[in-house]
Amino acid sequence: MFKFDFDEAMIEQISQKIADRAYEKLVERFDRVNNLPYLLTRTEAKELLRCGETKMSELFARPDFPINTEFGKRVPTKLLFKWIEQNTRWVKQNTNYFDREVV
Q1: 66-87: pLDDT as tens digits
Q2: What are the beta bridge partners of residue 39?
Q3: Which of 4, 8, 25, 58 has its CA 20 to 30 A from that of 84?
Q4: C-alpha to C-alpha distance for 23 and 47, rounded to whole angstroms
C-alpha cells in the first residue's frame, strides 16, 4: 500500500488546479446554454436532451410538451427548461423550489 505525504504548498497547488479546471468546464457549459437559439428545431432539442428519435417522438406527442407550431414544429428554449423543472419528480418531492413566489 502506498502512502503519500503532501505539504501545504503541494495541497494548495493541486486544489488550485482542480478548481481552475472545474471553473473552465462550468464556464463552457454556461456558454453552451446561454448561446442556444430562442426556438429549437426537433434535432436541436433531441441533441440538447440527449435522447433518441423514439423518445423525441413521445415528447412531441405529449400535450404538455412546449411546442410552437407557427414556424414549423419548434421548441421554445426557455419553456423547455421550465417544462423540465416542472416534470422532475425529485425536485417536487424533495425541495420547495416550486413553492417560491416571484418577487
Answers
A1: 999 998 999 999 999 999 988 8
A2: 76
A3: 25
A4: 24
Helix (H, G, I), strand (E, B) or coil at 73: coil
Identify the CA nearest to 75 among candidates 50, 46, 39.
39
Condensed to tens digits (0 to 9), the pLDDT of residues 19-67 reads 999 888 888 877 777 788 999 999 999 999 999 999 999 999 999 999 9
Closest to 42 (Cα-Cα) out of 63, 78, 79, 68? 68
Q: How far is CA 70 from CA 59, 67, 74, 76, in A?
A: 18, 9, 8, 12
Q: Which residues pair with 74 in a beta bridge?
A: 68
List alpha helices for 51-99, DSSP H: 53-61, 77-86, 89-94
